[in-house]
Amino acid sequence: MNINIPFDEAGKVYQQNHIAQWDSIANKRDHWRGMGRWYHRRLAETYKFLVNPNQRVLEIGCGMGGLIASLQPSHGVGVDFSAEMIARAKQRHPEIEYQQLDAHDLSSLEGTFDVIILSDTVNDLWDVQRALEQAKKFCTPHTRLILNFYSHLWQLPLKIAQSLNLATPMLSQNWLTPEDVDNLLLLAGFESIRTSREILWPLPLGAFANRYLVKLWPFNSFALSNFVIARPAPQPAKQPSVSVIVAARNEEGNIKTIFERVPQMGSKTELIFVEGHSRDKTYETIEKEIPLHPQISSLLFRQPGIGKADAVRLGFEKASGDILMILDADLTVPPEDLPRFYEAIATGKGEFINGVRLVYPMEKEAMRTLNFIGNKLFSLTFSWMLGQSIKDTLCGTKVMWREDYEKVAANRSYFGDFDPFGDFDLIFGAAKLNRKIVDLPIRYRERTYGTTNISRWKHGLLLFRMVAFAAKRIKFV
Description:
This protein is an alpha/beta fold.
């Protein structure tokens, strides 16, 4: 293979040596497997959780192609600089497109991808930043870049295993820390979303250690593989439209105020009311107010089921806006704060904007003490489970892109369908899509009309049940 990349002489020698090394490894693997198969098996399991099937996937440094083939992409492309590796990949997994290319120069590659993978590839690169810059050419705003690379702690054990012919022999490696990779991603035009540590025992009988222990302190400090999920540095969207969904049950006294206070945002703002079996005249009041505010695009629906989640889902289904916002009809989150949520998502600062009531001091009766403590505990649990800061799980105001919601809804069965509030459903769904979640602090207000529809003990127990279920689905996988 000709190397036309502008390396200096040392770089050219490095690349030639590494190409020759991986060619020889490909030949060796025809009759030798070593102890790495359990590691690669667990690696594939982790990627299957992070990458949903039927996506466009590019793997840079694909080797013999086993990993990308296991992800069942709608269109898969694997590239590697080793001719011997590519030859075997084509033979073993003909459903994937393979090209012999160097990660430092992908100029002949075409198209964009939903997911780009560099699995144990940055360890071997002469210029990591350049390779990441090459990968960026194939990104859309929603592309996720997923990297995994060895931990420093395993440098000596791996060398010993190689000397005993139990592991793949390696030349000089880049022993990068997550902080090193995070900085290189920043320089290449990416933003890290979250990191994790995986694979504690890359040998037989490691299922319990790799699924559970590695997620807990202090065992996670000894993990073999660091994972980083990143996205292209955000670019502002051009005046997206907005749908504000208001689930209203027994909120007759707040309806007129909602019409008066919800601001216009983006190219168009529509109000979608979903009334949920009120005992007062909430539905009739909304009906009366709509013609009194002809300048506001408004829709009204009766909720067929029960629970806030059911109402919000109906509102989202009927929405036409690019951005979906939830506004609680009790107005404990002021409508005047909504433009801040709009700004955060439209400028790309986040892809899921989560309102947070627990930063600023609250008005005296806004939240009862036990509710406050419970929310704090849930926030700590969620932040640990998702690997992103979630300081408040039950603030009603949440904002996301409609196209992301459609993906969450299509995959709802993964987390179960027993969330009456809809908050967990959306947060878990956004995390499963590897979306950037951003907390936005607001000042939480007292109700001025009506009483809360939440039962502290009944719903509290249900929330614990949902957390336990989700932990199995998103943390211990």
